[in-house]
């Protein structure tokens, strides 16, 4: 077999393509079944009623003292009766490139290949808390009863398994939450993200969160 | 509920700092002992006080460190999961593997080093275990391979604890390439201090012996390099801007952990021993009490460095 320079360069090109970061990105964002769940949280619609928090706690049997989901209120900006509040959803971002999964020494923290959901296998978790420290969104905690790492899993083992929407989405009275498949161009969530201005938290860390946010209309002035 | 030891962004607390310290001592002592044996002692290394101290402290520090770590897990009795489920992306998982190989090679190296003592001990007390001598003599054939491998593993272990923390993207001060190098060199410096301290106290190694001189010689350049690494760490954070800069200011710009850093790590651990070596006469410097005092200062400084990095590092979130 001859090895001309032309063949060599073409071959090296193929090697670079196959091993380069392109492939890694493809492997992580492309899903085999065409499902990659994400969520949009509309800050302009959220009224801070915390119905989502209560529903999450009930459906997922989250004990007192810890929570998978928190709505953080900031403000008010302006004087009564013009006082405005801002709300922020504090929960798992279901990163496409999750640091918690990368650091987990036993594979207890994993990204489900079929749905893109980041989840915890409590049977395998030893409670080293490396994932809790590694999560830049500070959403993980030790379940007080099971003594294992826990967090939002989009109700993968509860509502989603029964064919329902996640508890928070289902319970939201203002429809501030949209859940769906980011890989389906016809899904409601993709259309929403295409048509509205959204942002994601801490994208500079390269975690590729799948929690999209529609920013609040009211600004706040910071020093 | 916010204090120096309890704050919201804190995940790993003081047992981890002690663990990091113990692993550094073990890795540092082993690295020094292998070089000491090859460069200075060559034969009869098993009679040297510093080698004897390493034989006791190096494995013991790892064992104690790992026991602390296991009981820091929220489910201690599932620790064996770490030894059967491995994840190549996890620094901790690779560290577990490293620990196992390190302990095996360390015990093999020490067994070969002390083969005569072990043989005569078994002959006198445990004749039934004489077959151990056979294993050791097989291992002894690989001594030339064992030593470089031991250095490689000890260096890897010394850097490992730094990589363990630098994998945390959450904390800009920890997510830093200087950390593994800093941990390795401060580990070597703590290993040198521990070697001198236990060598001359427990094992009555004469302070004017070539081995104490050898360990003493490497202490100063290592400490100066450590000082430079600390400078590089914080200058890098300052120039990084944003949360990196905020992390540096929060850590060394005032407050409890800033005091620990300036007075404990820099003052007690680095500057005071350096100043003492410049001010004190040769006669004082060659006294046993001086050496013990300097070794204790070095060890305290590095223990405080581990506490400082761990706590101050977790104060600022990216």
TrEMBL record, chain A:
InterPro entries: 4Fe4S_Fe-S-bd, 4Fe4S_Fe_S_CS, Cyt_c_NO2Rdtase_NrfC, ET_IronSulfur_Cluster-Binding. It comes from the Bacteria. Coiled coil: none annotated. PROSITE patterns: 4FE4S_FER_1 (PS00198), 4FE4S_FER_2 (PS51379). Gene3D superfamilies: 3.30.70.20. Keywords: 4Fe-4S, Iron, Iron-sulfur, Metal-binding, Repeat. This is Cytochrome c nitrite reductase Fe-S protein. The gene is nrfC.
UniProtKB/TrEMBL annotation, chain B:
The keyword Transcription regulation does not apply. Pfam families: NrfD. This is Cytochrome c nitrite reductase subunit NrfD. It comes from the Bacteria. It is found in: Cell membrane. One of its GO terms (cellular component) is plasma membrane. It is a multi-pass membrane protein. The lineage of its organism: Bacteria, Pseudomonadati, Pseudomonadota, Gammaproteobacteria, Enterobacterales. Belongs to the NrfD family. The chain crosses the membrane at residues 16-37, 49-71, 91-114, 149-168, 180-203, 223-240, 260-280, 292-312. Gene3D superfamilies: Formate dehydrogenase/DMSO reductase domain.
């Amino acid at each position: 077999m001859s090895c001309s320079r032309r063949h060599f360069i073409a071959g090296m090109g193929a090697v670079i393509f196959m091993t380069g970061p392109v492939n890694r990105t493809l492997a992580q964002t492309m899903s085999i079944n065409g499902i990659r769940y994400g969520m949009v949280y509309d800050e302009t619609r959220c009224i801070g009623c915390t119905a989502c928090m209560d529903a999450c706690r009930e459906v997922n049997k989250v004990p007192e003292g810890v929570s998978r989901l928190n709505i953080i209120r900031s403000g008010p900006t302006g004087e009564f009766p013009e006082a405005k509040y801002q709300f922020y959803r504090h929960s798992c971002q279901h990163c496409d490139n999750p640091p918690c999964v990368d650091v987990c020494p036993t594979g207890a923290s994993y990204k489900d290949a079929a749905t893109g959901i980041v989840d915890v296998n409590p049977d395998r978790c030893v409670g080293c808390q490396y994932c809790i420290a590694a999560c830049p969104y500070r959403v993980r905690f030790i379940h007080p009863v099971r003594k294992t790492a826990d967090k939002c899993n989009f109700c993968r083992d509860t509502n989603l398994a029964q064919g329902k929407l996640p508890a928070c989405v289902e319970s939201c009275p203002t429809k501030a939450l949209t859940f769906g498949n980011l890989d389906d161009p016809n899904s409601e969530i993709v259309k929403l993200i295409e048509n509205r201005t959204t942002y994601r938290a801490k994208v500079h860390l390269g975690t590729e969160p799948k929690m999209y946010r529609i920013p609040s209309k009211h600004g706040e002035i910071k020093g | 509920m916010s204090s120096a030891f309890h704050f919201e962004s804190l995940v790993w607390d003081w047992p981890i700092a002690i663990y990091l310290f113990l692993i550094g001592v073990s890795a540092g002592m082993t690295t020094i002992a292998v070089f000491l044996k090859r460069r200075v002692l060559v034969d009869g290394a098993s009679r040297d006080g510093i080698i004897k101290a390493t034989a006791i402290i190096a494995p013991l520090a790892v064992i104690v460190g790992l026991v602390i770590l296991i009981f820091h897990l929220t489910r201690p009795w599932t620790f064996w999961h770490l030894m059967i489920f491995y994840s190549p992306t996890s620094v901790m998982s690779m560290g577990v593997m490293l620990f196992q190989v390190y302990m095996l090679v360390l015990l093999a190296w020490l067994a070969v080093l002390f083969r005569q003592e072990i043989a005569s001990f078994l002959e006198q007390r445990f004749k039934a275990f004489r077959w151990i001598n056979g294993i050791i003599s097989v291992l002894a054939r690989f001594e030339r391979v064992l030593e470089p491998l031991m250095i490689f593993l000890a260096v890897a272990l010394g850097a490992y604890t730094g990589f363990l923390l630098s994998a945390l993207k959450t904390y800009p001060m920890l997510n830093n390439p200087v950390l593994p190098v800093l941990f390795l060199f401060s580990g070597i410096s703590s290993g040198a201090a521990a070697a001198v301290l236990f060598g001359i106290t427990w094992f009555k190694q004469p302070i004017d012996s070539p081995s104490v001189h050898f360990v003493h010689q490497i202490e100063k350049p290592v400490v100066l390099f450590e000082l430079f690494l600390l400078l590089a760490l914080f200058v890098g954070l300052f120039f990084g801007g944003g949360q990196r800069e905020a992390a540096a200011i929060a850590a060394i710009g005032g407050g409890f952990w800033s005091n620990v850093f300036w007075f404990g790590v820099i003052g007690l651990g680095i500057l005071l021993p350096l100043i003492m070596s410049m001010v004190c006469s040769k006669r004082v410097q060659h006294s046993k009490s001086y050496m013990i005092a300097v070794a204790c200062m070095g060890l305290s400084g590095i223990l405080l460095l581990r506490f400082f990095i761990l706590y101050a590092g977790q104060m600022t979130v990216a």
